[in-house]
């Protein structure tokens, strides 16, 4: 290691704006061939590769014919800085990073470390502030400074000792011109700053204060551009003098704006002025350029599958790259284990479960699960040894156990950790399962927390679980952050949605031929069932450690299954990043007013009693309305109503469809029965049951979101299910009045308008629908006008209703029979409607036929974002079943794309709100709607940010041909927000 030296005369300090360079490298990589942008296993690495290329050049060759003596790579650590405290809207309009870039952020920092450098960052400050501080200190010591960045905000730092270097595309040095239209690299000194801003560097802040910055949402003064701002500052000398003399300016509008927005200009100056006195842990001497550690660098390049860089580094540093293995830590940050050769071999597999299971068996050397191999950990010393083993391998299977009940109601009982096959332990916390004869007490949580915090948040250790959302939430509530994370169930779901279940036990049987212990095996059943916190330590260890062990065994094979199915992006952008978002939503919960529910239950009880009396009167006797047998006897034997159908058991059917058919035929008793069933369900499922779900500690209902329960990617919820609260009936809407805002806050409901029809218009390429959506017209009225030749103005509401029913029915593959039932018209008339619909919108029929062909050929269909929905039984010989699967396949790309869009929005909204300095929290997702809780004084700003993110959620992955519409409103209750 070279001696550390404070830079002075004759030294040159390179300050690399890493955060800016990351984005630049990404967008350049997007212009190159795919093979350069992705590792062999599907991990996006294009930006990392270009970043490493340029960093290699800086260290080996310098830049602008200058060699550095000191070098720092500087990043933004957090999304918010002290500027957000001054102006919460600062950078609030920035979109989320591109999906392909997100997995590369931790790899950028890993790359810096592989070069033997330390990534420099500081919470609450931007990279520009750190650069400003180092630049000032180095220049004051007499050293020269080269800031490697094209960020115009840094031009304020340029002087006789500080210059900038714009690396541009990296091709300029060789070709003299920019690649893909990008200008070549260049040196930026005082003259270049004057050329760009029209003023010297010491006046740049004043000019920026006037013109503002749309990218960072700096307001500036309306109507003043860069040229005008430069003229004004040149004339008046500085911003303060200009504002004090604003009344002397002759141009009316300019004078008025400078007077009206003077405070805004001063605020803008504070936002753009860099802080060059940041307290930093690493002094200038720590930036002394050290020799590159050859083997770690080659190992990193190998792990990234950078063949050219690997060979170049090996040759330059005299290393035999054939004797250097890829560092597994870097492999685990991204995709599966193994170097590029192994990854390529695995991708070449057919991708079937059998092939992958065989590959996994080989990789595990035939190891079988041995429950007796697991260890119970109760001491800090032994826990530290297990965590050190996790650091060494770069892998950690985890399984959390709760004492009694879900995470929001129960403390931790323990945590299982696995580091390899049959190498797992169970950390017992508190008095986990006291076997009075031999079992010691477990560690106190307070003692374990300091030991666990580092490894659980270490980006170099992959954390793998069979239920990561559950584990993440439980650990979060204990004060532990988990990152990076992987969920084997979600990996399976991503690769094989529609091909069976993705639960832990099923995956273990399918891929490992191993049946794991069931909850009943250790906790018992029925009246003998005990909480997990009371089972013996031996049983707890077997149960939890086995799950962590199996998770780690399943992980590489399911990772490769995702790669083989070519759905890595789906997992990386739609599944994995949503896990912590949903966990936080579950933790947030939604406040429910028990008194409102209680009153509604009473009202429903009275309504039911009235309806029951009416039913008994129509039936001519009292009977058990909930009894299928008694009801069928009344309907089909005593009253002799027509149309009765018997089930396979010989009993009469009294299902909803039977009652609806009878009601449509004009029989009054079925009408009342349907009404009774509806009110009864609302009472039992919601107004009664929700009262029991209110958490005594928080006063909120905390649902559990299910990510892998539908074929299309739609989320569902359970305990309680909040996805099915009725919204189309007056009684159902009343339920939402019980969901209320906490004191001092308001609820915001943000709902996508007709998103599935918009997706259909895009996918099926329907010009009439695209035009109507683009112009914000009434889509159902436009459809009715196209179909029935009637003008939109003054349209009969019944005509519009029929068009609406067809619009939505087509998405779900509605039949003439189904449409006839829905509209109460003859089958022939409904059939004619559907026929005419396809005539007016032929693209829809084409889409349907093409989709049926695709699913028959491939066995699956895809959403706009690459999510696959499998229909393995599409070739069934049963015509009705085959038709069902075809309708489902037609609907899946539409409903699935809509589900993907809202998932993308959910992932992006939290950071967008944080960047704006807002404390608004996301609480619920119900199909196409998101529910938030916001302090009353920030609701308007939150609505603006939420709407903006939701409207742009499809981009940049998909550029929709129609705009997305979002209706966002605030109210004291969920009902009021609609």
UniProtKB/TrEMBL annotation:
Q: What GO terms are given for molecular function?
A: 3'-5' exonuclease activity; 5'-3' exonuclease activity; DNA binding; DNA-directed DNA polymerase activity
| Coiled-coil region | none
The record's keywords, sorted A to Z, are:
DNA damage, DNA repair, DNA replication, DNA-binding, DNA-directed DNA polymerase, Exonuclease, Hydrolase, Nuclease, Nucleotidyltransferase, Transferase
Where does the 5'-3' exonuclease domain start and stop, copy by copy? 8-290
Per the UniProt entry, the Enzyme Commission number(s) are: 2.7.7.7
What positions does the domain DNA-directed DNA polymerase family A palm occupy? 732-938
Q: Which Gene3D superfamilies match?
A: 3.30.70.370, 5' to 3' exonuclease, C-terminal subdomain (1.10.150.20), 5'-nuclease (3.40.50.1010), Ribonuclease H-like superfamily/Ribonuclease H (3.30.420.10), Taq DNA Polymerase, Chain T, domain 4 (1.20.1060.10)
Q: Biological process GO terms, please?
A: DNA-templated DNA replication; double-strand break repair
- What InterPro entries does its record include? 3'-5'_exonuclease_dom (IPR002562), 5-3_exonucl_a-hlix_arch_N (IPR020046), 5-3_exonuclease (IPR002421), 5-3_exonuclease_C_sf (IPR036279), DNA-dir_DNA_pol_A_CS (IPR019760), DNA-dir_DNA_pol_A_palm_dom (IPR001098), DNA/RNA_pol_sf (IPR043502), DNA_polI_H3TH (IPR020045)
Which reaction is recorded as catalysed by this protein?
DNA(n) + a 2'-deoxyribonucleoside 5'-triphosphate = DNA(n+1) + diphosphate
| Limits of the 3'-5' exonuclease domain | 374-563
Q: Which domain of life is it from?
A: Bacteria
Q: Does the record carry Lyase as a key word?
A: no
Which regions span the lipid bilayer? Answer: none
Q: What does this protein do?
A: In addition to polymerase activity, this DNA polymerase exhibits 3'-5' and 5'-3' exonuclease activity.
What is the annotated quaternary arrangement, including any partners? Single-chain monomer with multiple functions.
The text of the family note is: Belongs to the DNA polymerase type-A family.
The name this protein goes by in its record: DNA polymerase I
């Amino acid at each position: 290691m070279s001696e550390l030296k404070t830079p002075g005369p004759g030294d040159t300090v390179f300050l690399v704006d890493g955060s800016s360079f990351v984005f630049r490298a990404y967008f350049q990589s997007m212009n190159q061939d795919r093979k350069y942008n992705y590792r062999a296993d599907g991990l996006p690495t294009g930006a990392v590769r270009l970043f490493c290329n340029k960093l290699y050049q800086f260290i080996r060759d310098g830049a602008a014919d200058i060699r550095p003596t000191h070098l720092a790579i500087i990043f933004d650590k957090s999304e918010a800085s002290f500027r957000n405290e001054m102006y919460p809207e600062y950078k609030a309009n920035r979109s989320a990073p591109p999906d392909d870039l997100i997995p590369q952020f931790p790899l950028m920092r890993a790359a810096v470390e592989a070069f033997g450098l330390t990534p420099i960052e500081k919470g609450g400050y931007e990279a520009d502030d750190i650069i400003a501080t180092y630049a000032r200190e180095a220049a004051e010591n007499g050293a020269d400074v080269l800031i490697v960045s094209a960020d115009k905000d840094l031009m304020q730092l340029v002087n006789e000792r500080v210059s900038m270097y714009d690396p541009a595309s990296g091709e300029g040095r060789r070709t003299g011109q920019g690649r893909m239209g990008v200008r070549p690299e260049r040196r930026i000194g005082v003259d270049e700053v004057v050329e760009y801003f029209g003023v010297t560097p010491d006046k740049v802040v004043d000019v920026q204060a006037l013109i503002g910055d749309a990218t960072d949402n700096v307001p500036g003064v309306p109507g003043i551009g860069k040229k005008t701002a430069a003229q004004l500052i040149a004339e008046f000398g500085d911003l303060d003098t200009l504002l004090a003399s604003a009344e002397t300016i002759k141009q009316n509008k300019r004078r008025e704006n400078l007077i009206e927005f003077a405070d805004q200009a001063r605020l803008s100056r504070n936002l753009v002025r860099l802080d060059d006195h940041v307290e930093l842990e690493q002094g200038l001497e720590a930036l002394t350029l050290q020799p590159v550690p050859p083997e770690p660098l080659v190992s990193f390049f190998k792990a990234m599958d950078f063949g050219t860089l690997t060979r170049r580094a090996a040759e330059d540093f005299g290393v035999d790259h054939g004797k250097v293995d890829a560092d597994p830590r870097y492999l685990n940050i991204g995709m599966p284990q193994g170097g590029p050769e192994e990854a390529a071999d695995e991708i070449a597999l057919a991708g079937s479960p059998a092939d992958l299971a065989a590959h996994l068996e080989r990789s595990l050397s035939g190891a079988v699960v041995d429950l007796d191999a697991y260890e119970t950990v109760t001491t800090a010393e032994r826990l530290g040894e297990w965590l050190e083993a996790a650091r060494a391998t770069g892998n950690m299977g985890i399984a959390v156990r709760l004492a009694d009940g879900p995470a929001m109601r129960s403390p931790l009982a323990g945590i299982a950790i696995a580091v390899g096959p049959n190498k797992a332990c169970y950390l017992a916390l508190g008095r986990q399962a006291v076997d009075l004869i031999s079992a010691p007490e477990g560690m106190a949580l307070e003692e374990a927390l300091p030991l666990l915090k580092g490894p659980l948040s270490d980006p170099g250790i992959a954390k793998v679980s069979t239920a990561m959302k559950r584990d993440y939430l439980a650990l979060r509530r204990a004060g532990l952050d988990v990152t990076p994370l992987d969920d084997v169930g979600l990996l399976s779901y991503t690769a094989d949605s529609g091909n069976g279940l993705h639960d832990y036990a099923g995956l273990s049987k399918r891929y490992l031929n191993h049946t794991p212990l069931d909850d009943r095996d250790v906790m018992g059943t029925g009246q003998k069932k005990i909480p997990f916190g009371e089972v013996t330590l031996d049983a707890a260890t077997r149960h939890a450690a086995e799950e962590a062990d199996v998770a780690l065994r399943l992980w590489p094979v399911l990772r490769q299954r995702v790669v083989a199915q070519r759905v890595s992006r789906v997992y990386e952008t739609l599944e994995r990043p949503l896990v912590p978002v949903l966990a936080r939503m579950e933790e947030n919960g939604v406040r429910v007013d028990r008194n409102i529910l209680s009153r509604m239950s009473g009202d429903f009880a009275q309504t039911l009693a009235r309806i029951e009396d009416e039913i008994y009167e129509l039936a001519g006797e009292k009977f058990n309305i909930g009894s299928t047998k008694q009801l069928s006897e009344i309907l089909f034997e005593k009253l002799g109503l027509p149309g009765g159908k018997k089930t396979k058991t010989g009993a009469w059917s009294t299902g909803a469809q039977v009652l609806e058919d009878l009601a449509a035929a004009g029989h009054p008793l079925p009408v009342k029965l349907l009404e009774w069933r509806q009110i009864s369900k609302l009472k039992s499922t919601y107004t009664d049951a929700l009262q029991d779900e209110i958490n005594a500690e928080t006063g909120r209902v905390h649902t559990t979101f299910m990510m892998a329960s539908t074929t299309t990617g739609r989320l569902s919820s359970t305990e309680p299910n909040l996805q099915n609260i009725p919204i189309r009936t007056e009684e159902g809407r009343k339920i939402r009045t019980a969901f209320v805002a906490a004191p001092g806050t308001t609820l915001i409901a943000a709902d996508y308008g007709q998103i599935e029809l918009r997706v259909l218009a895009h996918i099926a390429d329907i010009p009439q629908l695209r035009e109507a959506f683009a112009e914000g017209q009434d889509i159902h009225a436009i459809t009715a006008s196209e179909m029935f030749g009637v003008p939109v103005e003054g349209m009969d509401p019944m005509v519009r209703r029929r068009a609406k029913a067809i619009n939505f029915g087509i998405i779900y593959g509605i039949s003439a029979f189904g449409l006839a039932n829905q509209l109460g018209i003859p089958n022939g008339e409904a059939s004619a409607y559907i026929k005419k619909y396809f005539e007016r919108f032929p693209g829809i029929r084409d889409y349907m036929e093409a989709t049926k062909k695709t699913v028959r050929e491939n066995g699956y269909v895809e959403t706009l974002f690459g999510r696959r929905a499998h229909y393995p039984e599409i070739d069934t010989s049963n015509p009705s079943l085959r038709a069902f699967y075809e309708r489902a396949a037609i609907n899946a790309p539409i409903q699935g794309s809509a589900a993907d869009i809202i998932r993308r929005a959910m992932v992006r909204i939290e950071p967008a709100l944080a960047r704006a300095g807002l404390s608004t929290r996301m609480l619920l997702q119900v199909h196409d709607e998101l529910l938030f809780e916001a302090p009353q004084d920030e609701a308007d700003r939150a609505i603006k940010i939420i709407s903006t993110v939701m409207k742009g959620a499809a981009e940049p992955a998909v550029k929709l041909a129609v705009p997305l519409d979002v209706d966002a409103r605030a109210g004291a209750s969920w009902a009021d927000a609609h």
